[in-house]
């Protein structure tokens, strides 16, 4: 494990989450009529808490390049809109069919299935509206790259494709490489985008951008392994969603393939590998180093 423990990241995440909610609220559209229920569902899902890991990665990576905080905050909000949309849809009966998310009733349980689908759709499109706005960055080329990279991260070769593989893989045997590919697409691709945004905003294409990508790829897979470990070992109360769902559904995970101890060892190795990528930033990347330890030690 890295020398820097999880405490720095845990405190920074807590401070960030509190202030970040104000950014999200400011960017939420105001209902004008009968569409108000969709707004209520969007707000309910966005304000339900969570670790805010992905938007936090955006702001920390941006700080490495001294990006203007407002620009980083808007990109971070777009990422959180995408992540929240994916959770809303993931919980639907046609997908993972989970009645609880972040310790609260899932959106389709709080409202109804149609509203949940539309709320997810609205958050997805809101993310691109935020990125395309001049308020995010005056340079249209940078805005276009943000939109293009995010589209790739969450499309058929990214999050959506990974979710499709995950659904198709229930009660099927996948080998280790197939599981890693699925998890990189489903979880890792958006984490990679979150880390890469700082370099995109700074128009950086050198080894620093590659370092952030390598770091994100490693912690993305480590994050998913720990998530799968928590599904096996955690309680529904602690993890904020129904525990044991993956085992019940017969989902292919590295934990089911390798066993708990070997999977935990693999996550540990990935965290150590992620930190090695950050040498080009010296102590400026200490929060990212601490975050890698937080990913490994988290309990929810």
Keywords summarizing the entry:
15 helices; Farnesyl Diphosphate Synthase; mainly alpha; two-stranded antiparallel sheet; 2 strands; 300 residues
Q: What can you tell me about this protein's structure?
A:
The chain has helices at residues 7-27, 36-46, 53-63, 69-90, 107-110, 113-132, 140-154, 159-168, 176-202, 207-233, 236-239, 245-249, 254-258, 260-276, 286-297; strands spanning 100-101, 104-105. The protein is mainly alpha-helical and 300 residues long. It has a single domain (7-297), classed as Farnesyl Diphosphate Synthase (Orthogonal Bundle), CATH 1.10.600.10. The protein has a two-stranded antiparallel ribbon. A hairpin with a 2-residue loop joins strand 1 (100-101) and strand 2. It is globular and about 55 Å long.
């Amino acid at each position: 494990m890295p020398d820097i423990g999880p405490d720095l990241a845990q405190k920074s995440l807590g401070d960030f989450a509190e202030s970040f909610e104000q950014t999200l609220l400011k960017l939420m559209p105001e209902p004008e009529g009968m569409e108000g229920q969709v707004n209520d569902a969007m707000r309910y899902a966005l304000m339900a808490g969570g670790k805010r890991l992905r938007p936090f990665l955006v702001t920390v990576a941006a700080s490495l390049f001294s990006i203007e905080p407002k620009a980083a905050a808007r990109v971070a909000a777009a990422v959180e809109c995408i992540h929240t949309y994916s959770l809303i849809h993931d919980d639907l009966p046609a997908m993972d069919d989970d009645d609880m998310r972040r310790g609260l009733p899932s959106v389709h349980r709080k409202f109804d299935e149609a509203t949940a689908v539309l709320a997810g759709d609205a958050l997805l499109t809101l993310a691109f509206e935020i990125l395309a706005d001049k308020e995010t960055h005056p340079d249209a080329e940078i805005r276009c790259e943000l939109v293009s990279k995010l589209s790739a991260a969450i499309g058929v070769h990214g999050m959506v494709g990974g979710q499709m593989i995950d659904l198709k893989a229930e009660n099927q045997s996948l080998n280790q490489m197939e599981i890693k590919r699925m998890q990189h697409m489903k979880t890792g691709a958006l984490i990679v985008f979150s880390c890469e945004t700082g370099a995109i905003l700074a128009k950086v294409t050198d080894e620093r951008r590659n370092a952030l990508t390598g770091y994100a790829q490693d912690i993305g897979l480590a994050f998913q392994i720990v998530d799968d470990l928590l599904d096996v070992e955690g309680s529904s109360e602690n993890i904020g969603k129904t525990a044991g769902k993956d085992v019940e559904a017969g989902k292919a995970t590295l934990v089911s393939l390798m066993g708990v101890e070997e999977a935990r060892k693999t996550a540990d190795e990935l965290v150590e590998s992620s930190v090695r990528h950050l040498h080009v930033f010296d102590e400026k990347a200490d929060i990212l180093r601490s975050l890698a330890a937080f990913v490994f030690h988290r309990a929810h």
